[in-house]
Write a structure and sequence with these properties.
Length: 80
């Protein structure tokens, strides 16, 4: 079950190395999405997916209510 489905706030930390030309293209896509009048949220999600697809998850942190904390760490070593 996804952590957000049980009411936990989730923070994902990821890393990637991208080429300058990829970044410049992505930056234009993101700017156009962030200033769109129609379907802004959908376009922002699509822009975020472009980066997410080339990223490697380092860790995942989920926090529950103030009285308790659930920490889920996921360590991925993409060099194995």
């Amino acid at each position: 079950m996804p952590l957000v489905a049980v009411g936990l706030r989730t923070l994902c930390v990821a890393t990637t190395t991208i080429r300058p030309d990829f970044y410049e293209t992505w930056k234009m896509v993101y700017y156009e999405a962030s200033t769109a009048i129609h379907d802004r949220e959908k376009k922002l999600e699509e822009a975020a997916e472009l980066i997410e697809k080339v990223s490697h998850i380092i860790s995942l942190l989920s926090l529950g209510h103030c009285t308790h904390c659930c920490v889920w760490r996921l360590q991925w070593n993409s060099r194995k």
